[in-house]
Amino acid sequence: MTTAELIEEARKLDAAATPGPWAANRNNVMATESRLIAYTGSESFPYDKTRAAAAFIARSRTLLPQLADAYVAFHAKVREKAVVYLRVTDDPRDGRTGHCYLCGYGWAEGDPEAHAPDCPARPMEPGT
Ligand SMILES: [Zn+2]
């Protein structure tokens, strides 16, 4: 699954779910106005584990979309700092060359960006 697909899935789950924030109260995951979202109690697991599961679910309600937004913003900032287009000559007819300061790869303007496979500045989905 690609990063873009993960972010899209997180945003779809966020949009479809009962609005947050949710809160954990022992084995209960509660939405606003004390409405029960989920009960994590189980005879198969110790109380501390089912209570931790409720806390995880409740916190994930707001954490997941926050992390998706943070990743997108961070990736945009990395690209803003790393990807530049430079003029090869003083003649504007010569066009520009793309360059990545992080991986050192370059490409002709109009061509797809070229980056090292592990470069954090590459477009979110390599090859697109
Ligand atoms: Zn790069």
In short:
This protein is α+β, with helices and mostly antiparallel strands. The protein has helices at 3-16, 47-82; strands at residues 23-25, 28-31, 35-39, 83-87, 96-100, 106-108.
Any descriptors?
alpha+beta; 3-stranded antiparallel beta sheet; 128 residues
Secondary structure: elements and pairs:
Layout: H1 3-16, E1 23-25, E2 28-31, E3 35-39, H2 47-82, E4 83-87, E5 96-100, E6 106-108
Helix pairs in contact: 1-2
Bound molecules: zinc ion (ZN).
What does this structure look like?
The protein is an alpha+beta fold and 128 residues long. The chain has a domain at 3-80. The protein is built from 2 helices and 6 strands, in the order H-E-E-E-H-E-E-E. The strands form 2 sheets. A 3-stranded antiparallel beta sheet has the order 1-2-3, with helices on one face. A 3-stranded antiparallel beta sheet has the order 4-5-6. Strand 1 and strand 2 form a beta hairpin. Helix 1 (3-16) packs across helix 2. The two termini are 15 Å apart. The relative contact order is 0.12. The mean pLDDT is 93.
